[in-house]
Design a protein that fits this description.
By secondary structure, the chain is an alpha/beta fold. It has 2 domains: 195 residues, Rossmann fold; 37 residues, no CATH class. The chain is built from 8 helices and 7 strands; from the N terminus they run E-H-E-H-E-H-E-H-E-H-E-H-H-H-E. Helix 2 links the parallel strand 2 and strand 3.
């Protein structure tokens, strides 16, 4: 499959799944624009391929998302990947923690998909990178899970609105990924429980019936499939990439 002539915008493109998505789509010939809040990681990813460029942006800020699309130019594929995680029991969760999780994981997706859709005039693909937390609950991450459930609802509703257009919208819902975000989750488990890093990693991998963390490349493969011929009827879906956990 070639994506030559297509422009792809990926938020949260400086690390983890976003960086892998950028490199994967670039390898198929697309023009890639990655966005994020930290300049150095964006520059590093952009340096890995000549058809990747970067724009600093904060997806929780409506004006900066508008500026991002203005800087990117017309995009055929928009991947709302930016996200963050936090961990605390609900009884001790502050309003600030709640608002931070909703802002980046739900409002950021809303702004990215809305502005991405509004600049599409023909064929297009909208993809939100959600989580299995959008399909089930996990203890100690209620705000994160609530935001990801919101993303799935957003995608399902939007799919019905755009069904008559040559545009689809879907959510990819990976389990725990083998990324720096999961490394940070492991560090929190170690700090709060006294487990070893290896034991904490094994516990997260054990949530997957296959007994492993999901490589970011599997998210990229699923995203590429959604953009390939033959996936036109896949619309409004929340696709679990979790080894059978859901």
């Amino acid at each position: 499959m070639t994506l030559s002539g297509k422009r792809v915008l990926i938020t949260g493109g400086g690390s983890g799944a976003g960086a892998d998505l950028a490199r994967g789509f670039a390898a198929h010939g697309a023009d890639i624009v990655i966005a994020g809040r930290r300049r150095a990681p964006l520059e590093a990813v952009a340096a890995s391929a000549p058809n990747i460029r970067w724009v600093e942006a904060d997806v929780t800020d409506e004006a900066r998302v508008a500026a991002l699309f203005a800087a990117a130019g017309r995009c055929d594929i928009v991947i709302a990947n930016a996200g963050a995680a936090d961990s605390e029991v609900l009884a001790r969760t502050t309003l600030a923690q709640w608002q931070a999780m909703i802002a980046v994981n739900l409002t950021g997706v809303f702004l990215t998909l809305r502005d991405g859709l509004n600049q599409m005039s023909g064929w297009g693909r909208l993809i939100a990178v959600a989580s299995t937390a959008g399909l089930k609950g996990y203890a100690k991450v209620a705000p994160y899970a609530a935001a990801k459930h919101g993303v799935v609802g957003l995608v399902r509703s939007l799919a019905l609105e755009i069904a008559s257009r040559p545009v689809t919208v879907n959510a990819l819902c990976p389990g725990f990924l083998d990324t720096p975000m999961t490394d940070r989750a492991i560090a929190v488990i170690v700090e709060k429980t006294g487990r070893s890093p290896a034991a904490a990693r094994a516990a997260l991998a054990g949530l997957n019936p296959q007994g492993r963390l999901i490589p970011p490349a599997e998210v990229t493969s699923a995203a590429l499939w959604l953009c390939a011929p033959g996936a036109e009827g896949v619309n409004g879906q929340a696709i679990a990439i979790s080894g059978g956990e859901i």
